[in-house]
Amino acid sequence: NYTDHDHLIEEDICQALQKNEESKDSLGAHSRRVFVASKVMPEHLHYEDVIIACERSLKRLGYLDVYFIHWPNPEIPIEETMMAMNKLKKERKIRYIGYSNCTVEQVKEAEQYGQIDFLQWEYHLLERSIETNGILGLQDKVLVTYSPFYHHRHISQTRRALLQGLAEKNHMTEYQLVLYWILRHPNTLVI
């Protein structure tokens, strides 16, 4: 279900997790400090494929907190995918179910078959569709936003100057200001 590159990323993450597990907190106790997420690709959303893909990720990562449906696939019924996700959750192979790059309607359809706990969407100064498409209105979800700094490559000099001025006025860097702007929404994370 992964490209060779994705497989290597999970292996690198596994090594980092092992080092984290070996560390101790200030009281000398072992504690897990990393929240781990992975995704199942849209071409692998059939029931058996979801189970197999998750097992492979678990073998590499050791555990999964949230498992995302990476993109909706109109060729595979969401009921079938959610049956597999619910099985994984019931068996405690995953803690939460996530859905990436989906519409509000797709979330509602999926939730006819089980709870969606996390949503993932691109969100930055130039991609703000979640402000109008209803995703931000789904209050009982954790929203994981990605590509927060994408705008830096595509912003005009005028807007860059405005952003720099706002950041300086608020004693922040541009990056801190952008993160603050995104995280103003409740239940929002940035990756």
Q: What features would you describe in this structure?
A:
Helix content is 40%, strand content 16%. By secondary structure, the protein is an alpha/beta fold. The chain has a six-stranded parallel beta sheet with strand order 1-2-3-4-5-6, with helices on one face. It is globular, with a radius of gyration of 19 Å.
Helix segment count? 6
- Average pLDDT: 87
| Share of helical residues | 40-55%
Cα shape: globular
Task: Give the structural class.
Answer: alpha/beta
Largest sheet: 6 strands, parallel
First-to-last CA distance = 22 Å
Percentage of residues in strands = 15-25%
The strand line-up of the biggest sheet is: 1-2-3-4-5-6
What sequence of helices (H) and strands (E) makes up the elements?
HEHEHEHEEHHE
- Unreliable stretches (pLDDT < 50, length at least 5) are 1-5, 27-31
Radius of gyration: 19 Å
Q: Quick one: how many beta strands?
A: 6
List keywords for this structure.
single chain; 191 residues; alpha/beta; six-stranded parallel β-sheet; 6 helices; 6 strands; 40% helix; 16% strand; disordered N terminus
List the helices and strands and how they pair.
Blueprint: H1 4-22, E1 37-40, H2 47-61, E2 64-69, H3 78-90, E3 94-100, H4 104-110, E4 118-122, E5 142-146, H5 157-169, H6 174-183, E6 188-190
Parallel strand pairs: 1-2, 2-3, 3-4, 4-5, 5-6
Question: Summed up, what is this model?
Answer:
The protein is an alpha/beta fold.
